[in-house]
Amino acid sequence: MKERTRILLIDDEESGREALTLILRNAGHHVTGAASGREAAQHLARDKFDIIITDLFLPDTNGIDILKDVKNDSPLTEVILITGHASAETAVRAMKEGAYDYITKPLNIDELRIIIAKAVEKHQLLSENVYLRKQLRDKFEFANIIGASPAMQQVFALMKRIVKTDSTVLIAGESGTGKEIVAKAIHFNGSRRERPFIAVHCGAIPENLLESELFGYVKGAFTGAVRDKIGKFEAANGGTIFLDEIGTMPLQLQTKLLRVLQEQEVERVGSTRPIKIDVRIISATNLDLAEEVKKGTFREDLYYRLNVIPLGLPPLRDRVEDILPLAKHFLAKYCKEMQRRRMTLATEAVEALEGYRWGGNVRELENVMERVVALTEADTITLHDLPPNIREESLTRVTERGVDLVKVIAEIERSMITDALALTDGVKARAAALLNLNRTTLVEKMRRLGMPL
After folding, report:
1. 3.30.160.340, 3.40.1050.10, 3.40.50.2300, 2.60.40.10: CATH of 6-136
2. What is the mean pLDDT of residues 312-317?
3. CA gap 80, 264 in Å, rounded
4. CATH architecture for residues 141-314
5. Among 1.10.8.60, 1.10.10.10, 3.40.640.10, 3.90.1230.10, what is the CATH number of 318-448?
């Protein structure tokens, strides 16, 4: 059910106040009346209001002072001023102080309804924007990024220093290590948090489109440019632009990007007019840019411009302590999304996850957890519920914890017999032939392993 708009109506003329209150209530609003500034202050101390409609002249104060106090305490509340003594000077002052609009007596009720409707729409949009920004800030608080390992604690310590600056940052790390999450955390914990965060995945945009995507274009710049369009840099003005996979950027565009960093201005494609911008640049790469510089595929001067503060993210295999907390986090996330009861990991499954090398890093771990939640019927995830590559690596890898060789051999036998039976539709004689065994030996092994016959 949609929540009613809360309106505070301040007017010392009782008959007019009561008539307007009735009209607004019939329109579906929740209306509170006040006859003076003192009475209004009492209501404002107790309740929150979306819209305030106040007479400009009151016995103990005036609408401009009420407007100032409201905007100081509740910037999102919209204020509409009403007066029987309109003047251009008063109207200008009211709007300068933050009034939404200004209407004169005798009131045109239809006009007032339209003004209130637009004020309500603006209030809702601003409130939703503030709510969404708060959600983003909360989501990307450092405390919400999982990482108790020494390697990640070093990353957090550096990030806490980075957010106090406005310097350019280069995040390096393998694919799937969470470079964009870290970039967002830096933005939403820094001084630009209320301004835009714009992400551009350079490797995902065709080379012939990347320039216009970054810098925009003017009408007629090329076939299909039927109107002006701002680029990502202009969209990020005042905030942060995140250039992911920066190492894939063509050399021609690297030159233009270098100029943007040096001059703090962009030129749209097809234009020669520079546009000043104020943008923090955070870039990311899974390549060794120093090596790319040596190979001539990346400009050395741009590399040094981007690499003011380097931030390296460790691969998941170097932060084994974080695997279980991350796995539990993703399990909870996908159980909630798929409306399942909370699932747990058996000890053997945990050991397998911690023993796996995770070439795809955190992204691969998340994908595995989504898969097991979708495909596992039981509430406990065992070794056999994990993908074959994780099972096999866990069985054949010796770690510092040691290995139960008898158990490993048994699990390998179980896995190979299961695969052979699947390939032969359960026909044991054919499965035995695939395993170079006779049928009786296969049946005996299955009985010893506790497999259904």
Report:
1. 3.40.50.2300
2. 94
3. 40
4. 3-Layer(aba) Sandwich (3.40)
5. 1.10.8.60
Give the whole-angstrom CA distance, residue 53 versus residue 43: 13
Render pLDDT for 422-440 as a digit per residue (tens, 0 to 9). 899 999 999 999 999 999 9
Most confident residue range from 91-100, 137-146, 420-429: 420-429
Report the distance separating Cα 328 and Cα 148, nearest Å: 14
What gap in Å lies between CA 358 and CA 361, rounded to an integer?
A: 5
Residue extents of the structural domains in the chain: 6-136, 141-314, 318-448
Higher pLDDT, 140 or 226: 226
Pairing status of strand 101-104 against strand 51-55: unpaired
Q: Nearest CA to 105 among 8, 12, 16, 7?
A: 16
43, 54, 319, 334, 374 from 341: Cα distances, Å: 46, 53, 29, 10, 12
pLDDT tier at 1, thresholds 50, 70, 90: very low
Element housing 108 (H / E)? none
Q: Tokens in use for 88? A: 């251009």
